[in-house]
Design brief:
- The chain has 391 residues and is α/β, with parallel strands linked by helices.
- It contains ten helices and 14 strands.
- The strands form two sheets. A seven-stranded mixed beta sheet has the order 2-3-1-4-7-6-5. Strands 10-9-8-11-12-14-13 form a seven-stranded mixed beta sheet.
- The longest helix has 18 residues.
- The radius of gyration is 22 Å and the shape is elongated.
- The model has no long low-confidence stretch (mean pLDDT 93).
Length: 391
């Protein structure tokens, strides 16, 4: 996916902390020469790589195109450089725009004042812009621009980087998960657990604490080689911000979508089994699997943990047990983690356990030696993906 000099884009896939190496590996598997940096993965590429990254990345939150980088110690410098950006390629006349600003160790620290200068530059270039309220300082994980074009401005040590969001809704929003159980796991983190746990769709999988089924559904998408942007029954792609850009190339986009659709397998080819004692959670999981286009690839059962039925063969148990952040929950959770260990040792010898853990003491109740695959955060809580072999 090489790019001519005229259409080279400076691109950056944003990830949750700790997921950068996984996103880099995903991009390299697509033939994109990417390099992990703190907070994401950077590369220079064509519009096709921009389109493919949005459609195919399982572990990224959004994809940005970097428009400019320059020193900015005073507002006149910021204004001068911002007005040099070719906004007509990105913002249609009259479109809504949002600006998100972060500033560290910089003279220009007033985020709203910075956002006003950027909006002024956009308005001068494309006419009247209906600017949506700025989301100054909002974290990427919680920021959703809706239909407005999001511009991301980052000031670090008096150096300014201006980027445009190309994704729109965050990429974990595949579109299938409208029904959720308690403490839902983000799709990007579920995919990261699978990839960090070395599960690639060629062995059985069990999640005996499945909630609304996110791990099992992401596993089915991975096994069938369904790009996350095509996670629906008709493989129709979700919408992205770049499709509203004046420079959007519909023909190129269709080629990227068709190439991804050709890779889809007719069935998972491996047993993916998920269960939960909560009948409502299983009902939600079935509805989510239907919307994702993989209802026949996941077996979903209402079962207590002790009654879980693993598939035949040797595979991986991948699960996200509750953490117990409230006082008084720990005793019950110790029993739950111990029961998970009993299930593994009695029914799953030779299997691999991949688990999201927020508490080393609870993790120890499983009785399996774990190694850390990655560290990240889930719902603001520091967590680790740990992997262990059942002996």
């Amino acid at each position: 996916m090489s790019a001519s000099a005229a259409e080279r884009l400076d691109l950056f896939a944003v990830t949750a902390p700790g997921l950068e190496p996984l996103a880099e590996a995903e991009l390299r598997a697509l033939g994109i020469d990417a390099a992990a940096e703190p907070g994401g993965v950077a590369w220079t590429g064509s519009p096709e790589t921009l389109y493919a990254a949005n459609l195919r990345l399982r572990t990224a939150s959004r994809v940005l195109v970097r428009l400019a980088e320059f020193p900015a110690r005073a507002f006149y410098e910021l204004e001068r450089h911002a007005r040099r950006i070719d906004w007509t390629r990105i913002v249609p006349a009259g479109a809504a725009v949002r600006v998100r600003v972060t500033s560290r160790k910089s003279r220009l620290y007033h985020q709203n004042a910075v956002a006003e200068r950027i909006l002024d530059a956009v308005e001068r270039a494309v006419g009247a812009v209906a600017a949506a309220p700025a989301a100054a300082g909002a974290g990427d994980e919680d920021d959703d621009a809706g239909d407005a074009q999001l511009l991301v401005v980052r000031l670090v040590r008096d150096r300014c980087t201006i980027s445009a969001d190309t994704s729109g809704a965050l990429l974990h929003q595949r579109g299938y998960r409208q029904a959720v159980a308690k403490a839902p796991l983000r799709e990007t983190l579920a995919a990261a657990m699978l990839l960090a746990g070395r599960w690639s769709g060629d062995e059985p999988l069990l999640d005996p604490l499945c909630g609304s089924g996110t791990i099992a559904i992401e596993a089915a998408l991975l096994a069938r080689r369904i790009a996350p942007g095509l996670a629906r029954p008709g493989l129709e792609p979700r919408a992205y911000a770049f499709q509203r850009w004046p420079g959007f190339d519909e023909a190129r986009w269709r080629r990227v979508v068709e190439a991804a659709a050709r890779e889809v397998r007719p069935a998972a080819g491996v047993d993916i089994v998920a269960s939960d004692r909560d009948a409502g959670a299983i009902e939600a999981a079935r509805a989510n699997a239907e919307r994702a286009g993989v209802p026949g690839d996941v077996r979903l059962d209402v079962r207590a943990l002790s009654a879980a039925e693993p598939p035949e063969g040797r595979g991986a148990l991948v699960t996200n047990p509750p953490y117990g952040v409230r006082v008084g929950e720990r005793a019950a959770l110790r029993d739950l983690y111990a029961a998970l260990g009993r299930l593994a040792r009695s029914r799953l010898p030779g299997w691999r356990i991949v688990m999201l853990s927020a508490d080393r003491a609870l993790e120890g109740q499983v009785g399996v030696p774990f190694t850390e695959a990655l560290r990240t955060r889930n719902g603001g809580i520091p967590v680790r993906v740990v992997v262990g072999e059942v002996r």
